[in-house]
Design goal:
128 residues, mainly alpha, globular
Length: 128
């Protein structure tokens, strides 16, 4: 069930992983059974722990927006309180490990202020 480069895994593979996790199997068993990399299975296990089968089966392109307070609390719990990524993801309902890692990196560099949203796009031009 290996995947070609640049594409995601099918819903059938994700569904099979969700069934394994629901049955109490770990990410290593899922990786071996489904012939997927352990890093992918570990990420899916974290996603399953946070949101169950629905979160794992949701479209990978779906982006969730989080309030500043959630970002700060999650980063604080991991960086300052030493909680594991998985504990923080479950406690705050965060589906993306990558997002949490980014928030922690920003939090370490600049504190809570660094997590505030910045305007995107080009700077507005002044009237000349």
């Amino acid at each position: 069930m290996a995947r070609p480069r640049g594409s995601g895994y099918s819903a059938d593979v994700r569904r099979a992983a969700a069934e394994l996790f629901a049955a109490g199997k770990g990410y290593r068993v899922a990786a071996r059974t489904l012939a997927i990399p352990e890093t992918v299975a570990r990420s899916w296990a974290r996603t399953f722990a946070v949101g169950g089968a629905d979160a794992l089966l949701a479209s990978p392109q779906h982006r969730t927006s989080y309030e500043l307070e959630v970002k700060v609390a999650a980063a604080h719990d991991h960086v300052d309180r030493g909680k594991s990524l998985r504990e923080v993801m479950v406690a705050h309902g965060i589906a993306s490990e990558a997002a949490l890692r980014l928030w922690c990196r920003k939090y370490r560099a600049g504190g809570a202020e660094a997590l505030a949203e910045r305007p995107r796009g080009p700077k507005p031009r002044g009237n000349a």
